[in-house]
């Protein structure tokens, strides 16, 4: 077990129980609609803070997550409570830089394979750039379901929505395949980009 995963495992029961410092503006009666979100493909910049739980066949862990997306670059921070076991991931197209905060920085030109090796299970990082916003990856086929869609062998379900600026964005998301389950709770969205509807 890696140092990072070991730290997160110790605190896995605590992270999802930690109260958010922000009052989440849950939108009563708001349901997921892919068609209503299609204009978000034009959204160039966004960020969120939340809590992530990942479980696989032989392992599971939980972490706080902060994700900042900009054109050509994603910055993801995963950490246990009080910043323990932090991992910083910087994605530049298909190039990845990983910093565990211990002075050891690693990089790879095979970003998804490298990240999954570090996490110990397959997580579709490139597709997640779209799925967390509530959209299928545009270059792949997908099948709509009642509260989400299926794509590339994964089921994305949007359990609860919230208001962020003038948008209705996901709050509770579950993404699963036959081996891995990701549960994400977004505590706060920051949509700092002009959108066209």
Could you describe the 3D structure shown?
Helices cover 16% and strands 41% of the residues. The protein is globular. The model is unreliable at 1-24 (pLDDT under 50). It has 5 helices and 11 strands. It is α+β, with helices and mostly antiparallel strands and 197 residues long. An 11-stranded antiparallel β-sheet has the order 6-5-4-3-2-1-11-10-9-8-7. Strand 5 (95-99) and strand 6 (105-108) form a beta hairpin. It has helices spanning 3-10, 12-15, 34-37, 111-119, 125-131; strands spanning 46-55, 60-70, 73-79, 87-92, 95-99, 105-108, 143-145, 148-151, 154-164, 167-176, 181-190.
What are the SSEs and their pairings?
Layout: H1 3-10, H2 12-15, H3 34-37, E1 46-55, E2 60-70, E3 73-79, E4 87-92, E5 95-99, E6 105-108, H4 111-119, H5 125-131, E7 143-145, E8 148-151, E9 154-164, E10 167-176, E11 181-190
What is the H-and-E element order? HHHEEEEEEHHEEEEE
How far do the termini sit from each other? 46 Å
Helix count, DSSP H or I runs of 4 or more residues: 5
What fraction of residues sit in β-strands?
Answer: 35-45%
Quickly describe the structure.
The chain is of the alpha+beta class. It is built from 5 helices and 11 strands; from the N terminus they run αααββββββααβββββ.
Essential attributes:
single chain, disordered N terminus, 5 helices, 197 residues
